[in-house]
Write a structure and sequence with these properties.
The protein has 8 helices and 6 strands; from the N terminus they run αααβββαββαααβα. By secondary structure, the chain is α+β, with helices and mostly antiparallel strands. A 6-stranded antiparallel β-barrel has the order 1-2-3-6-5-4.
Length: 197
């Protein structure tokens, strides 16, 4: 489930704006090197990764935090607004993506597998990996019958990310982690300067 566009359960424009701001905040936490901390309690807060994709019109690099799960070593996520999700349209145009997981960074390929055999159970596992967010919007994937769950997620798209190559470098998770030592140094300097007052 893409946590930025969860207004699938019509929550209006104000909620869409709230999730957009939340998306920016989550991305900042990842860039500060806190991706593992974000995923410290998956049963409560869910499992969150960042997917980097290319804008279908702008060709600019875009990043979207999404809920995900790993099934038999393979990464799956969902587009809760289905084909209307901007990031889904981007990966449909250009399936080459990067993903930031709590312990790694990968280049890979995204593929819509919604209509493949076994997709309903995989979709259920991704929604379960949303933690409280899924339940907040009426998707109790643990207890819903297959029919109810299928109806509730009929517009969702299930995305499989094939990991191709591990990545390293400056433009990935933790690229702003250098701010922590700087902030600590400034805090220590401030504390010592106050002692002289």
């Amino acid at each position: 489930m893409d946590i930025t566009q969860i207004e699938k359960v019509d929550t209006g424009e104000s909620s869409a704006l709230l999730f957009k701001q939340f998306n920016k905040f989550m991305l900042l936490l990842w860039r500060l090197g806190l991706g593992a901390w974000i995923n410290v309690w998956p049963q409560g807060f869910g499992r969150i990764m960042v997917i980097t994709h290319t804008g279908r019109k702008s060709r600019a690099r875009r990043q979207t935090p999404v809920n995900y799960t790993i099934i038999n070593g393979e990464v799956y996520c969902t587009a809760s607004r289905g084909v209307h999700s901007d990031w889904y349209q981007n990966i449909a145009t250009n399936p080459h993506v990067e993903i930031w997981l709590p312990d790694s960074w990968w280049a890979g390929t995204a593929e819509d597998v919604t209509d493949q055999e076994g997709s309903l159970e995989k979709m259920r596992m991704v929604v379960m990996a949303c933690g409280f967010v899924g339940r907040l919007f009426g998707l109790d994937a643990c207890s819903m019958s297959d029919e109810d769950f299928r109806n509730a997620t009929k517009d969702f798209r299930l995305i499989h990310i094939s990991r191709k190559q591990a990545r390293t470098g400056r433009n990935g998770p933790g690229d702003l982690a250098w701010l922590w030592p700087l902030a600590t140094l400034m805090l220590v300097f401030w504390m010592f300067s106050r002692r002289d007052d």
